[in-house]
Amino acid sequence: MNRIIFLISVVFVLLISVGCTKEEAEPVSGETDVIEESVENEVEEEVEEAPANTYPLTGIGTDDLVDQRTVAVMVNNDPKARPQSGLHKADIVFEVLAEGNITRFLAIFQSETPEKIGPVRSARDYYIELSKGYDAFYVAHGYSPDAEQMLRAGEVDSINGMAYDGILFKRAKFRKAPHNSYITFENIMKGATENNYATTHDIKPLLFKDANELDSISGEAAEAVKVAYSKANFTIVDYKYDTEKQKYYRYAGNELTEDLDSKEPVLLDNIFVVETTHQVLDSAGRREVDLTSGGDAYLIQRGTLQEVQWKNVDGRILPYLQNEPVEFVPGKTWVNIVETLEDVTFSGATN
Predict the structure, then answer these.
(1) Are 136 and 114 in contact (CB under 8 A)?
(2) Residues 336/342/347/350 CA torsion (nearest 10 deg)
(3) Cis amide linkage into residue 205, ω under 30° from 0
(4) CA 229, CA 253: separation in Å to the nearest integer?
(5) Strand, coil or helix: what is 148?
């Protein structure tokens, strides 16, 4: 009798164990759906669609259209014109000596459009030539005799403050002429439309490095770079590399280059310093600047400096090494055109 009771107990325990195991093996209602949904979400997060387009002068991806015509604006760099407006939005800025030891900027806009730009200054023939390489709509206020001849001949599409002062170009009350002429981007487009100039176009893109090439840029350490257009402090340009942002800040006369209104700094991914022949032509100090012969240059990216050469390719000043083009880092570019690379010094740290 006891044996029978024992066997019944054993069978009962085994049945309970099997039942528990079955319950544990079966997922809780809805658990499978949750797991599958989680896996699907993980896959969706890992696969990001590439932007539909790429801005041609910065190499940065975007889903927006990229057919905005390039606009090139002459910007004043006299100390009385600082800080300027709009430079932080430019894709490329060319800095070249005008008269004396003061440079002027040719700011080229395509991927971004600032609300206003200025102070706007007068045209020179070599700045007009630089704008041609980008088929830019050229904006200036005033001109030298040679530049006036080029503009009147229609070598580039342009508007000038000499014809539109007080109309498209406005004078700021807080500065004195010739350091107070400003223009909004809206008025630039209005001027182009009124003169039947194109406001969209297809522009040939610059060459940019792929993401997997950015960590392998070689060269000498250059986290601090100085370009001295003369011994006067207000003509000296400093670039300081921010290792976290992986961009360069620009300083002029020891003051940060930032936007007058927004206080946003100019942040640069490429600094291209080009050595070329300058010649003073007249008593006013007007210059001839060689933009065609090619020569030595420095290309500064990601805290390093590489010795390269420059060539004029279809009107564009571009870096080359052993006759092969050197790509830019995606982002914004500043081009300093100097009489000699001896005016450029650099070191590995900013402190």
Answers:
(1) no
(2) -50
(3) no
(4) 11
(5) helix
The mean of the pLDDT values for the chain is 89
- The residues near 239 (Cβ < 8 Å, ≥ 6 apart) are 224, 225, 226, 227, 248, 249, 250, 251, 268, 271, 300
pLDDT in tens, 301-312: 999 999 999 999
Contact 222, 272 (CB under 8 A): no
H/E element, 34: helix 31-46
Q: Which residue has the tokens 């092969």?
A: 324
- SS3 for 193-205 is HHCCCCCECCCCC
Exposed / middle / buried, residue 127 (Cβ in 10 Å: 0-12, 13-18, 19+): buried
Q: Which two structure tokens, joined as six digits, stand for 272?
A: 């291209």
Residues shown for the chain: 351
Query: Whole-angstrom distance between the N-terminal and C-terminal Cα of the chain?
Result: 96
Tell me the pTM.
Answer: 0.86
